[in-house]
Amino acid sequence: MSKLSTWLFGRQYTDRNSRFEVRDSPILPTPDTGPVRASLPPEPGADALQPLKNWSHPFKDTRNPLQQLTHLAKATAGYYPLGRNGLWHGGVHFDSGTAGGLDQSSVQCLADGEVVAFRIDTHSPTTRYFINTITVEKPFSRNFVLVRHRLQPPNIEGSPDTPPSLTFYSLYMHLQDWAVYQEDSAIARPAFWPEAPTRRVKESANDVRPGNLEQRGLNVRNKDSQGKVIDLLPRGAEVTVIGEGKYRKLENTLGPANLLNTDGSLRGYVSNSLLIPVAGDEYRIATVHDSFDIRAEPSFHSDIIGELPTGTHVTVSGEGQYRKLERINQYVHFDWLQGEQKPLAADRVVVLETPVAIKAGALIGHLGLYQDGSADQPEEKLHLEVFSGDDIDLFIEASRAWAQRLPDKDKTWLKLAQGTAVVTHQENATAAQLKILSAASPLSAADLLVPKSLLDGLPADRKIAVPATADRRACNWYRLDGLLHDADNTLLDGWVREEVGVTPWLSPWSWEGYDVIFDYSTPKHAMASFLSAVDHFSEAQRERYRPLADKDDQGPMKSRLYDIIDRNRDGKMTAEELQAVLHLPAHAQSISQLIIYKESEWFHQAQKWDALDELLGHSGSTPHLNWLAEKQRIEQLSWWGEVAEKVGLPSWGKAYHFHPVGLVGSFSAENDDNDLKWLKVPYGQLTFDVEGNDIEDESHPLYRYFSRVVHWPGGASGITIGRGYDLGQRPAPESDLRAAGVEEQLLTWLIGAKGL
Predict the structure, then answer these.
(1) Are 172 and 382 in contact (CB under 8 A)?
(2) Burial degree of 422 (CB within 10 A; 0-12, 13-18, 19+)
């Protein structure tokens, strides 16, 4: 069972499909597949969702889209559309294998959209597995964020026609627990969490208590204007405040710390003769002295336990000459309080009644811990998916027609077709020599779309432009290393030729190379295929389960993958072959262009997993305890049934799955640094028109006033941001910066410079 455990403790599913450019007849739905509709009811709030304008890699990888795809080959498991175990997997993993080339400290949103649902457990649940004679609890994060997006081609200038659009969703699974955020307030929190009523004293608060210079924090005053100090809150202290203005009233404590009992109640009595009524039981203390005494008991002869400044407002109770203190009004400087965002709820699935807008690149969360049953230790992992419930065939057909009307500037991918000659580099070779050498050069074995941004970024010595003449077209030569491969899957280095007007440039809205594949197979089919491929079956079992395995192996999705992956044509898809394919840009791109209609991993139906009992050797008389534990984990991970209909996804669990990194790369490559749209100031950028400049030469004497860094212009000015935002001259700089989109830790650092 050792090989079986590799699958048993991973994620699972299977496939059967039919391509967009149909080669095989589609496999029709079975009675348990749910209804097949041409379109879904409108998503709640979908009409108000604006088409996305920006994309972002989940870890802000700035490498070209092809490198982003091949980097996924380094994942320890979880490839699209097959996991390391060779079974259906609707997304991609980022884990310890991918961490080497990425900053995986936080997860960012793939595209502009709106958060529609999430889950965050205080502590992730665990699964009890049996290892020999002992049991081990292994954690699995089921925390997720679901974001809805609207994809739409650009408008055509001068045309009133409305472009086609597609609603799709991005899923971020296995995120960090709420307890981790609670334990470390310095960890950045997603902006879609609402701000809690509780705030914290900033770590940069620098007030001190007389006689104790070691303790620093925030002064507490007796009035909201020109008040005197009556207490000191330590850095990080949690507070609740009310009111408006520079100073806000403390609500979570009844008085200064030195007057509080251990249960939080207030000690002390004050003379009735000093009380001036304000409203109800609230009074203002009035005395000819600067301060007044607080007595331990209602007697002039009792001990003095403290004093407060004249003008302090208090709430009292009782009768007689001395009244019992019930509350002392206290005020703190609001700018030195840090807002704290908290999830709307923990330990359950939350579907937002009002979705929260989110920008591409905005914080989604952080990697959580997930431990497979066969793993010795938990690891940080992200499962990333993109899927849609819309009719993809109709959208792609309309999108391709729309792309034909778009201007040439929107064609940002150069297609190097299979059979492109790759000429080995020779020093000082001319274009004419390269053309001659191309006749005997190795040929590429697969189509490859190359982003314009990659070609534009090549150094001058890796590009040769040949102008047109009367008898020949213009052409461009590009020296590309490690992008194309030959029939033996060997990467080729050398020069390739673009014949201007012949070698096609394509828009991402053409969906070049994309296939739509329909899969109606079950996990039972996939399990039979897998156990056969890893030689787990006896010969008798292999024959017995061959019909099940063939339904998976001969389905359109597996057929397409065999074309790409199975190099030795042995009819098996091994993890080693899959990884090798993902290291090749052209094959990684081909796989990323598969759109697979398949039941979601997160849609739970107990019967489809119970159907595996026989294959895995489980029965009432011979229970497979780890398989029973795994089925419980699968159910606990599922969320589709609680969310789908409320956000516009099909209730029956099937959706069109996209390769998430492939989709982002396809459309983010549209961005042209020279496009006039970049003149538009993005959200969160500070731009002013007074002090500062944009001189980037460090040797220039005015460089110190560079407007895009924090600087001091000199004279009466203080620390300044941009061209004239003087922190010291602004009444509420924290509110201004927060409204401008400046986030922690930068926010605290900037505010800490106020007054310098």
Answers:
(1) yes
(2) buried
Q: Is the peptide bond before 68 cis (omega within 30 degrees of 0)?
A: no
Spatial separation of the C-alpha atoms in residues 693 and 704, rounded to whole Å: 9
Alpha carbon separation from 266 to 318, 327, 746 (Å, rounded): 14, 7, 38
d(CA 76, CA 71): 11
Alpha-carbon distance of 724 to 713, in angstroms, equals 9
User: Hey, which of 75-84, 211-220, 234-243 has the most confident mean pLDDT?
Assistant: 234-243
Residue 741: left (phi > 0), alpha (psi -120 to 50), or beta? left
Q: What pLDDT score does 628 carry?
A: 95
Q: What is the pTM of this model?
A: 0.79
Predicted pLDDT of residue 159 = 95
Report residue 175 as tokens.
């995120």
**Buried b or exposed e, range 676-692, using 16+ CB within 10 angstroms:** eeeeeeeeeebeeeebb
Strands, sheet with 505-506, edge to edge from the N-terminal-most edge strand:
448-451, 413-416, 505-506
The token duo for 597 is: 């209609």
Q: Report which of 240, 256, 232, 241 is spatially closest to residue 314, judged by C-alpha positions.
A: 256
Cβ atoms within 10 A of the Cβ of 735, count? 13
pLDDT of residue 574: 64
Helices vs. strands in the chain: H and E counts, helices first? 17, 37
Q: In which residue are the tokens 């000015």 written?
A: 717
Could you tell me what percentage of the chain is helix, strand and coil, using 3-state DSSP and rounding each to the nearest 5? 25, 30, 45
Contact indicator for 642, 345 with CB cutoff of 8 Å: no
Q: Is 245 left (phi over 0), alpha (psi -120 to 50) or beta?
A: left
CA distance 756 to 733: 14
Which pLDDT score is estimated for 684? Answer: 53
Burial 546-563 (b: 16+ CB within 10 A, else e): eebbebbbebbbbbbbee
User: Please, what is the Cα angle at 389 between 77 and 26, to 5 degrees?
Assistant: 80
d(CA 348, CA 125): 12
Tell me the average pLDDT of the chain. 87
In the predicted structure, residue 452 carries a pLDDT above the cut 80: yes
| Contact assessment for residue 93 and residue 381, using Cβ atoms and an 8 Å cutoff | yes
- Measured distance CA(205)–CA(219) in Å, rounded: 9
In sequence order, what are the residues at sequence separation of 6 or more whose Cβ sits closer than 8 angstroms to the Cβ of residue 459?
Answer: none
Provide the pLDDT confidence category of residue 718 given band limits of 50, 70 and 90: low
Pick from 425-434, 473-482, 646-655, 723-732: least confident? 723-732
Contact 464, 431 (CB under 8 A): yes
Q: 167 vs 690, which has greater pLDDT?
A: 167
HSE of 8, CA atoms in CB hemisphere, 13 A: 23
56-71 average pLDDT score = 97
Distance CA 166, CA 397 (A): 12
* Cis peptide upstream of residue 451 (ω within 30 degrees of 0): no
pLDDT digits (tens, 9 = 90+) for 348-374: 999 999 999 999 999 999 999 999 998
- Print burial letters for 33-67: b (CB count within 10 Å at least 16), e (below 16): eeeeeeebeebbbbeebeebebbbbbbebeebbbb
Whether 346 and 178 have beta carbons less than 8 Å apart is answered as yes
pLDDT digits (tens, 9 = 90+) for 294-326: 999 999 999 999 999 999 999 999 999 999 999
Of the candidates 553, 561, 565, 564, the residue with the CA atom closest to the CA atom of residue 526: 553
Q: In the chain, where are the structural domains located?
A: 2-182+345-399+513-668, 198-338, 413-506, 677-752
Backbone angles phi, psi at 354, to 5 degrees: -120, 110
CA atoms of 686 and 726, how far apart (whole Å): 12
